[in-house]
Amino acid sequence: MATPQKSGRKPNAAFMKPLTPSATLAAIIGPEAVPRTEVTKKIWNYIKQHNLQDPANRRNINADVRLRPLFGKEQVSMFELTKLVSAHLK
Q1: Residue 90, class by beta-carbon neighbours within 10 Å (0-12 exposed, 13-18 middle, 19+ buried)?
Q2: Is residue 11's pLDDT more than 70?
Q3: How many percent of the chain have pLDDT more than 70?
Q4: What pLDDT sits at residue 22?
Q5: For the chain, which terminus, N or C, has the lower number of CB atoms within 10 Å?
Q6: Is the pLDDT of residue 9 over 80?
Q7: Residue 1 pLDDT more than 70?
Q8: How does 28-60 read in b/e, with b if 16+ C-beta sit within 10 Å?
Q9: Closest CA to 42 of 60, 66, 58
């Protein structure tokens, strides 16, 4: 009889490595180095806290004064967000 396998996955080390945000990104999430997963959480907290999701299409995020330099435009889709943020992490 086979022993049951554990279904728990190990987190990917690349996602857990602390990354330093650029000055533009640090204005939103703070200057400390944090893992990529934490960066995403902090950005979404900021978006929700400032009610920046487009009411007509919730997949779009409207840029405010602090997000505009990060996005480079007035509105982005949530699918573009990761790509745009990655350019601001070292």
Answers
A1: exposed
A2: no
A3: 84
A4: 95
A5: N
A6: no
A7: no
A8: bbeeeebbbebbbebbeeebeeeebbeeeeeeb
A9: 66
Domains (ranges, CATH) in the chain?
Answer: 35-90 (1.10.245.10)
Span 52-75, mean pLDDT? 95
Any long-range contacts for 64-70 (C-beta under 8 Å, 24+ apart)?
Answer: 66/27, 66/28, 67/28, 69/24, 69/27, 70/24, 70/25, 70/28
**CA Rg value for the chain:** 16
Q: Which residues pair with 75 in a beta bridge?
A: 62
**How far lies 48's CA from each of 1, 51, 52, 54, 79, in Å?**
50, 5, 6, 11, 16
